[in-house]
Design brief:
heterodimer, A: mainly alpha, 3 domains, B: mainly alpha, Non-ribosomal Peptide Synthetase Peptidyl Carrier Protein, Chain A, 58% helix
Chain lengths: 472, 72
């Protein structure tokens, strides 16, 4: 069951209804049962494995807390973290080999996200940021919370436990977020996907214009796809009384590559910053700039390889390592320059925004390409025969559908405008306004809702395609 | 002052509940620069666990006091 399945929406509605009828102290148990029911629709064996890893981590958390209080068994936390990392790595390696080994038996859904939750729990208890969970049901519900299990966002344990017992928000405060996520996925991402798929499937037979189309369209597609998935996850979580962390903050307005990573997949980057970069940087701080460069490289390559142990993801991570190093090692000089020449500040921001978008797009070519040579072909043939590539571009739009591309691009423009001007925030002020404003707003919202559902049904991009981040 | 120097902000005023969310340039990179700056200033040495458990400037200040006090 995926988040765009009609069955999921019915399932969510039933659980949200039960959550409101259920006494607050039993709500977390309900969420635990619902999460495992959701998980069982994918694989019973994966659900059993998840339960076993959860139980082991719960017991380990108790042990880590005791060891912290008594200042003994310093080896316990590293052992737990290494075991969890090995558990994740084993599946990634088995998946890479397409073997019939461990991954063939049961590749647990959302394994990256659940493992990251468990590692942060072990380290937070070890560092004394929180105490070990006392109730197994609370802990198991946190790990398996079904709105976050497909692709995050990665919620920290303290942030989840502080919301217990769950208090669901009004449906009107959560449903627009779910609807917006569905529009991003079904109307924008799925309509841009055919053109992107065409370019990357035929990349070595193309040059010029269609390659530019692939270069520019994939960043838009993946942003609409992944942020749509996050919107559904956050909206569904709120409906059940658990607000997850935000994952995106208008990433294509970033003015530097560091700024981009503070706005893109924020729950993963902040996780890595706290649990990978910080310990590494602490260990290498005596080495100065060299230690900084090493820590950045390890962190960014870890982000790349987290998606899969392939050369393309390694190249993606390595490219971002270089981009971030360039950003970090020049940031002070740039800041001083713009402080002295404040009239250039606006120009600098525009140039930074354009440059950042193009660097991100270059990185995403490696991310999307099936092989590194395909990515290099795309980047190396953008300008070759550009004037004579009109026929190839038309072949691309004929094959992928010009209407789908137009709908996807128009939808993307609405996405950027919507996130820039936030009409949802204006609507929140309406209940305090005069009666004529309230009635006008509700009539307008009803018309928009009917129009919106029609738009979703009419412009959904053909057969359902999985979310790009479901597979990680 | 180490905070002002690391974050390149002359007007920064230190308070106990100051967190990364309150300072524009306070990210994972500058956080370690801050730790290194404080280690140099107070001739103290922090562990990863100590740095990982800090939630605001007050925690950092308490830790520095503890380290400096223990040294006598």
């Amino acid at each position: 069951m995926s988040y765009t399945d009609f069955g999921f929406l019915i399932f969510l509605a039933v659980i949200a209804g039960l959550c409101r009828l259920c006494p607050p102290r039993l709500r977390n148990l309900l969420l635990l049962g619902a999460s495992y029911a959701f998980y069982l629709t994918w694989s019973a064996r994966a659900a059993l494995l998840l339960a076993a890893v959860t139980a082991s981590s719960f017991a380990a958390g108790m042990g880590i807390e005791r060891a912290r209080q008594l200042q003994t068994r310093a080896w316990l936390t590293p052992l737990v973290v290494v075991a969890l990392a090995a558990y994740l790595l084993a599946f990634k390696i088995a998946l890479l080999g397409r073997s019939h080994g461990i991954a063939g038996l049961a590749m647990p859904l959302g394994i990256s996200y659940t493992t990251f939750k468990l590692i942060s729990y072990a380290l937070d208890v070890h560092w004394g940021k929180m105490n070990a969970a006392r109730r197994f049901s609370d802990f198991a519900a946190y790990v398996a919370f079904f709105p976050q299990i497909l692709a995050g966002p990665i919620q920290r344990p303290g942030a989840y436990f502080s919301q217990l017992p769950p208090v669901p928000v009004r449906a009107a405060d959560a449903l627009p977020r779910i609807y917006w996520g569905l529009v991003k996925k079904l109307v924008i991402a799925d309509n841009l996907a055919p053109a992107v798929n065409y370019v990357y499937a035929n990349v070595t037979g193309l040059h010029g214009a269609p390659l530019w189309a692939g270069f520019y369209l994939f960043p838009l597609q993946i942003y609409a796809d992944f942020s749509g998935l996050t919107d559904i996850a956050i909206g569904a979580g709120r409906l059940l009384g658990i607000t997850g962390p935000e994952n995106f903050d208008r990433p294509f307005t970033a003015t530097s590559i560091g700024d981009f990573w503070r706005r893109w997949h924020m729950s993963l980057t902040s996780w890595l910053a706290d649990y990978v970069f910080m310990p590494l940087r602490m260990a290498t701080r005596a080495a100065g700039s060299l230690g900084l460069a090493f820590s950045i490289a390890v962190n960014m390559i870890a982000i790349g390889l987290w998606h899969g142990l392939t050369a393309t993801y390694l190249a993606f991570g390595a490219a971002h390592s270089l981009f971030i190093m360039a950003d970090v090692f020049t940031s002070r000089a740039r800041a001083r320059f713009f402080k002295r020449h404040s009239k250039w500040d606006g120009v600098g921001r525009c140039a930074g925004c354009l440059l950042t978008f193009h660097l991100v797009a270059i990185g995403l070519v490696f991310f999307r390409a099936a092989r590194v040579p395909d990515a290099l072909w795309l980047l190396g043939h953008l300008f070759s025969g550009l004037g004579a590539s009109g026929g190839l571009f038309l072949a691309m739009t004929d094959s992928s559908g010009a209407r789908a591309l137009a709908v996807g691009l128009a939808g993307y423009a609405v996405l950027e405008l919507g996130e820039r001007f936030r009409p949802d925030l204006w609507l929140r002020r309406v209940p305090q306004g005069p009666r004529w404003l309230r009635w006008s707003a509700w009539c307008g919202a009803t018309v928009l809702l009917i129009f919106g559902v029609a738009l979703l049904l009419a412009h959904s991009g053909g057969p359902r395609s999985p979310f790009l981040y479901e597979i990680f | 002052m180490v905070f002002r120097d690391v974050f390149d902000e002359e007007s920064l005023v230190l308070r106990d509940n100051l967190t990364a969310a309150d300072v524009e340039n306070w990210d994972s990179l500058t956080h370690i620069n801050l730790i290194v700056g404080i280690e140099r200033e107070f001739k103290a040495r922090f562990t990863t666990a100590e740095v990982g458990s800090m939630t605001n400037a007050g925690d950092l200040e308490n830790l520095v006091r503890k380290k400096v006090g223990a040294r006598g």
